[in-house]
Amino acid sequence: MECTPKGVRLKGCPNEPYFGSLTALVCQHSITPMALPCRLIIPKRDPLEELNESSSQTSTNSAAELLKQGAACNVWFLGSVDLESLTGVQGVQKATTVILSMNPPPTSTVVHFKVSAQGITLTDNQRKLFFRRHYAVNTVIFCALDPQDRKWTRDGCTAAKIFGFIARKSGSSTENVCHVFAEHDPEQPASAIVNFVSKVMIGSQKTK
Fold first, then answer.
1. DSSP for residue 156
2. 117 Cβ contact partners less than 8 Å away, ≥ 6 residues apart
3. In angstroms, rounded to a whole number, what is the distance separating the alpha carbons of residues 72 and 77?
4. Are residues 154 and 184 in the same domain?
5. Which of 7, 41, 67, 159 is the residue whose CA sits 20 to 30 A from 58?
6. What is the pTM of this model?
7. Quick check: 122 and 116 in contact, CB under 8 A?
8. For 132-179, what is each residue's pLDDT tens digit?
9. 55 three-class SS
10. Is 191 exposed, middle or buried (0-12, 13-18, 19+ CB in 10 A)?
11. Number of folded domains in the chain?
12. What is the largest CA-CA distance in the chain?
């Protein structure tokens, strides 16, 4: 490219005219090749954007595959709280407050928490409180960390993050229940569980 007081033109091509700007030069050469061996092809979209979309699509696809197989980990089950019609972050906050203010504290147990395309399945490893509970994917409406970032400090936990998911009460289309948990394994943080339930499981329902 050659810049002169007259304008811009292709260097070493005296038969090329001068253009007022680089944009004008590119635009003209996209219409006719002139001194170039072929016309310039201007991409309609930023290639970087397409690359980002492609990698985002890949991660979405792999998450969807994982959902088909099911992802599972152990967590502390702290209890369930009726919310009537309350949902969202306020529902998780209220349920956490109820659980933490119980006196005596609730009986907690380690449960196997499995998320799949069918929903969420809880299995009480020691059968302390129940054997197995399943919440169908179309009944689970919200999942989040405690917005006040309170921690579970019992059961030998020093500061386990608390989270909950809200599901429709069995047989009801308006009443909700929040099931409250605390992280058990540092390698399976509550934030990762919440992200998977919210973005992959609940998200997959919204895109259908």
1. T
2. 67, 68, 70, 137, 201, 204
3. 14
4. yes
5. 41
6. 0.66
7. no
8. 899 988 889 999 999 999 999 887 777 889 999 999 887 777 889 999
9. helix
10. exposed
11. 2
12. 91
What is the C-alpha to C-alpha distance for residues 6 and 173, in angstroms, rounded to an integer?
Answer: 74
Token output for 53:
């979309």
Q: Which of 13, 37, 64 is a domain's end point?
A: 64
pLDDT band for 111, please (50, 70, 90 cuts). very high
Domain region containing 9: 2-64
Angle at Cα 178 formed by Cα 175 and Cα 184, nearest 5°?
165
Residues 75 and 57 in one domain: no
Nearest CA-CA partner of 109 in 134, 77, 79:
77
- Tens digit of pLDDT for each residue in 41-56? 877 666 566 555 555 4
Closest CA to 75 of 164, 8, 167: 164
**Alpha carbon distances (Å) from 39 to 3, 33, 42, 151:** 21, 4, 9, 63
Instruction: Report the CATH number that the domain containing residue 199 is assigned in CATH.
Output: 2.30.29.30
Q: E strands, 48-152, where? A: 71-84, 109-116, 119-124, 132-136, 140-145, 151-152
Separation CA 56–CA 134 (nearest Å):
30
Length of the chain as a residue count: 208
Query: Residue 57 and residue 55: Cα distance in Å, rounded?
Result: 5
